[in-house]
Amino acid sequence: MLIIVAGKGLRIWKAPRTTYKVDAKNPGSDVAAETAAAFAAASIAFRRVDTEYSNKLLRSARRIFDFADQYRGKYSDSLAAAVCPFYCSYSGFNDEILWGAAWLYKAPKMDRYLQFLTNNAKP
């Protein structure tokens, strides 16, 4: 499960903000894979200054990526009333899945993610 914040109130960014979740019943591969990519990138940034935090980010990125891959679907399909039309995904989630895999490959240089990219990228 991943908790997200989305909504139509883009002019005011203050509490309270409605939160939503993506989970096995309400997939959100696009938002989850983007989150995994961000965590993996942050783990690189923190690697030399805070190894413990960097490793925590990387572990979280892997778990979130696995969730995104296992429960595939667009979060705008799961949460259409809350996120569309502003945050609707019109192109699907494949680009975000590949983006997440690319950052996870770059962060720890694990062949698993390079293999994922090779198997799932379409020219």
TrEMBL record:
Name the source organism: Ceratodon purpureus (Fire moss)
Does this entry carry the keyword Ligase? no
EC numbers: 3.2.1.4
The transmembrane residues are: none
Q: Cite the SUPFAM superfamilies for this sequence.
A: Six-hairpin glycosidases (SSF48208)
Arranged from A to Z, the UniProt key words for this protein are:
Carbohydrate metabolism, Cellulose degradation, Glycosidase, Hydrolase, Polysaccharide degradation
UniProt enzyme class:
hydrolase
Report which superkingdom the organism of origin falls in.
Answer: Eukaryota
Where does the UniProt annotation place the signal sequence? Answer: none
Reaction(s) catalysed by this chain, per the record, are: Endohydrolysis of (1->4)-beta-D-glucosidic linkages in cellulose, lichenin and cereal beta-D-glucans
Q: Name one GO biological process term.
A: cellulose catabolic process
What is the name listed in the Swiss-Prot or TrEMBL entry for this protein? cellulase
For this UniProt entry, the molecular function terms from Gene Ontology, in alphabetical order, are: cellulase activity
- Per UniProt, residues of the Glycoside hydrolase family domain are 15-121
Q: Which family does it belong to?
A: Belongs to the glycosyl hydrolase 9 (cellulase E) family.
Q: Which InterPro entries match?
A: 6-hairpin_glycosidase_sf, 6hp_glycosidase-like_sf, Glyco_hydro_9
